[in-house]
Amino acid sequence: MNLISKVSATLFLTVGLLTATEYKVDNAHTNVGFTVKHMMITNVHGKFNAYNSVIDFDEVTKTFKKFSATVDTTSIDTGIEKRDAHLKSDDFFAVEKFPKMIFEMTSYKADGDEGKMTGNLTIRGITKPVVLDVEDIAVIGNKVGFSLEGKINRTDFDLKWNKAIELGGVAVSEEVKIKVDVEAAK
């Protein structure tokens, strides 16, 4: 690499670091949700109502310099109290022992208004790499909005409870779809 290339690369990285801005999530306009198949025939939707995150975003290059989130597992909400109580039990999230779920970004690859965010997801004390699609990045004034989507296998995180269905299949799919819509402000 010649001197001019090295200087250009250094300037680009420096400008990127200088233009990154920390954003605070607007909980009133953010949704941390998931979907899982029930009895192999329908989707059950749920969300978490308590969470916080650190977002360091460069609006010029539309890239994330840092993204981390902590979700309070006790705030799970599927709209059915009995189901929520079961999800909080040792069969699933074991919220008394593991009250937090954590995501830490390890890398981000931008592609215009979209990208791929790779990070480590920790549930029940088990950490696994996860790739999330980042879509619909929009910046207006002092706000940024975007969506994160991905899939995990819940059994990778020791969320193993299930019940066989008499006619075939299981009560709860292993695949969980993650869908997070974020609005944040400087």
Characterize the structure shown.
- The chain is built from 2 helices and 11 strands.
- With about 190 residues, the protein is mainly β.
- The chain has a single domain, classed as Beta Barrel (Lipocalin), CATH 2.40.128.
- It has an 8-stranded antiparallel beta barrel with strand order 1-4-5-7-8-9-10-11.
- β8 and β9 form a beta hairpin.
- The longest helix has 17 residues.
- The relative contact order is 0.19.
- The N terminus is likely disordered.
Layout of strands and helices, then pairs:
Elements lengths: L2 H17 E6 L5 E8 L3 E7 L2 E8 L4 E10 L3 E2 L3 H8 L11 E12 L2 E10 L2 E15 L2 E11 L18 E14 L1
Antiparallel strand pairs: 1-4, 1-11, 2-3, 2-11, 3-6, 4-5, 5-7, 7-8, 8-9, 9-10, 10-11
The best one-word shape is elongated
Quote the average pLDDT.
86
What is the CATH architecture descriptor?
Answer: Beta Barrel
**Whole-Å distance between the termini?**
37 Å
Backbone structural class: mainly beta
- The CATH C-level name is Mainly Beta
Unreliable residue stretches: 2-18
Number of domains: 1
Radius of gyration: 19 Å
User: Would you count the extended β strands for me?
Assistant: 11
Q: Helix fraction?
A: 10-25%
Strand order of the largest sheet: 1-4-5-7-8-9-10-11
The H-level CATH homologous superfamily, spelled out, is Lipid/polyisoprenoid-binding, YceI-like
CATH topology: Lipocalin
Summarize the helix and strand pattern as letters: HEEEEEEHEEEEE
Instruction: Indicate the proportion of strand residues.
Output: over 45%
The largest pleated sheet is described as: 8 strands, antiparallel, barrel
Enumerate how many helices there are, as a single number.
2
